[in-house]
Amino acid sequence: MSSNQVPTLHYFNGRGRAETSRVLLTLANVEFNDIRNTLPFADDGIKQKATYKQLPYYIDGDFEVSQSLAIENYIANKYNLAGDSLIDKAKVLSIQQASYDISIPIFTNDTDEKKDLYKNETLPRFLAAWEKILVENGGKYFVGAKLSAADVSAYTTLENLFAKNFKDIVDKFTTLTNFKSTFETIPSISNYLSKRPTDLIF
Ligand SMILES: N[C@@H](CCC(=O)N[C@@H](CS)C(=O)NCC(=O)O)C(=O)O
């Protein structure tokens, strides 16, 4: 692949809404330009190009797309990580969307009441559902019999939870914690994690 064919993922210097796409590309062994724009987001350059003037924004040859979940799905479909059947594709998307339901409140809950509800009710409910799905599917993969975008979304979400002081809650779900540890031993992932830039934001 010549350098001008390498896809480019524009985001900021943090995991945020781009990390799942970065990990998907890593798992698929796809070389990519990991562009980390500075904040405040200058009103020129990529901001002018991005559909909604927000990031992440993904460029693959002539194709350009906004919205993190659309980018994740494009990458997952292109590199056979989106599920092998119609039903598996729906199951993968269900985990991907649950990931956003889990992750977004970490950053947006702005009152003690909302934070308590999240910690005591919402998060345990979502994690219990994930534990059940994973156990019922054999404990190794969230969907089907091989790694998929569902596993990547679940991994990056669990990693966010560890980073944001919810490890004690995740630890109550042993299949999920084992899944996280095992995912980190995949050679391409372990290599990526060891070289990943330190987050400045998110
Ligand atoms: N729904 C969009 C949300 C994108 C979004 O809110 N991006 C933020 C960073 S997480 C951004 O570009 N902020 C800079 C700005 O709005 O100037 C997605 O998931 O991609």
TrEMBL record:
One Pfam family recorded for the sequence: GST_C_3
Gene3D superfamilies registered for this protein in UniProt: 1.20.1050.10, Glutaredoxin
Entry-linked PROSITE patterns: GST_CTER, GST_NTER
InterPro entries tied to this protein: Glutathione-S-Trfase_C-like, Glutathione-S-Trfase_C_sf, Glutathione_S-Trfase, Glutathione_S-Trfase_N, GST_C, GST_superfamily, Thioredoxin-like_sf
Domain GST C-terminal: 69-200
Domain of life the protein comes from: Eukaryota
Record CDD domains: GST_C_Sigma_like (cd03192), GST_N_Sigma_like (cd03039)
GO process annotations (BP): glutathione metabolic process
Any one GO MF annotation of this record: glutathione transferase activity
All copies of domain GST N-terminal, residue ranges: 5-83
Protein name, UniProt field: Glutathione S-transferase
Organism of this sequence: Heterostelium pallidum (strain ATCC 26659 / Pp 5 / PN500) (Cellular slime mold)
